[in-house]
Specification:
The chain has about 280 residues and is of the alpha+beta class. The chain has 8 helices and 9 strands. Strands 1-7-4-9-3-2 form a 6-stranded antiparallel beta sheet. Helix 1 crosses helix 3. The longest helix is centred in the C-terminal third of the chain and has 17 residues, at about 240-260. It starts with a helix and ends in a 5-residue tail after the last helix.
Length: about 280
């Protein structure tokens, strides 16, 4: 099958089903190197996330020199070309890059990251900010009357609709550093970015080492396994518009607080890689 036809089918699956497993994106030996590094890194409790009760997670890891190896995540032409096509031609980094070991499985939920504005502002401040910067009300953005209601990740508050003619189109992109071709990886509710999640079928997304799983941030999903040093790395990129900008602002607020920093800084090494791949930031 021709490359263009394969990509067309991949994009159709992403748009219609809300998820895609992209095979053989990364070299398996490289992924094992990442795995050994993560296990060694989190063996030091001081490297665990204090704000999250010392979970083995590093929010915004890509902006730390210890994770230079991970810059290769953004050098994959195979991955970036699929994401760029899925977003209509232009692609922007969503300032989201987290690493985990053994994060517990949870309920099916969505990750429309705009809700993380609550990491830095209360509801009144959010209302003022949305009105002053975007001439937007909470009702227009969230179709709820309160930010608390919008923050309910187990309910259908996941921006299935256009806001001022724009779509929140952000793709979460993850790779497992061990085999999950049979079990223990990601499950999704197929099509839940478009219709009520209770009407959607649960699908398991099998991944081998080196594969990438991509899912629309609005799709309900859940981890299905834990233990045995289950390593996962994930980032996010999306279609440039004001909704992605809100997602970025909210994500920067989250990771800044989680890492106990005073401000968010995008390091030059990452900018250079993104520039070389013609990815906006």
């Amino acid at each position: 099958m021709e490359y263009k036809q394969i990509m067309k089918e991949q994009i159709e699956q992403l748009h219609n089903d809300g998820y895609l497993v992209l095979k053989d994106v990364f070299n398996k030996d490289t992924m094992m190197q990442w795995r050994h590094h993560l296990i060694n890194y989190f063996s030091d409790r001081n490297n665990c996330c204090k704000v999250e009760n010392y979970q083995k997670t590093k929010p915004d890891a890509i902006n730390y020199k210890e994770f230079d190896l991970h810059l290769d995540f953004f050098r994959s032409e195979k991955l970036i070309s699929v994401l760029r096509e899925a977003c209509g031609g232009e692609l922007k980094y969503a300032h989201h890059y987290d690493t985990h070991i053994d994060i517990a499985p949870g309920k099916m939920h969505h990750d429309g990251g705009i809700r993380h504005l609550a990491w830095k502002w209360n509801e009144g401040q959010i209302k003022t900010y949305l009105k002053e910067k975007y001439d937007l009300t909470i009702q227009e953005l969230c179709r709820t009357n309160t930010w608390k209601d919008y923050n309910k990740v187990f309910e259908d508050t996941n921006n299935k609709y256009l806001v001022k003619g724009e779509e929140l189109l952000v793709y979460r992109v993850g790779t497992y550093l061990q085999d999950h071709s049979k079990s223990g990886g990601l499950a999704v509710l197929k099509g839940s970015h478009k219709k009520p999640h209770k009407q959607c079928k649960e699908i398991y997304a099998p991944c081998s080492i080196g594969d990438v799983v991509i899912w629309d941030c609005r799709v309900f999903h859940a981890a299905t396994g834990k233990g045995n040093n289950r390593c996962f790395v994930h980032t996010a990129l999306g279609k440039p518009n004001f909704l992605l900008d809100l997602y970025i602002e909210a994500t920067q607020a989250r990771v800044t607080k989680q890492n106990s920093k005073s401000k968010y800084v995008l390091r030059e090494e990452l900018k250079q890689v993104l520039d070389s791949m013609k990815v906006l930031y």
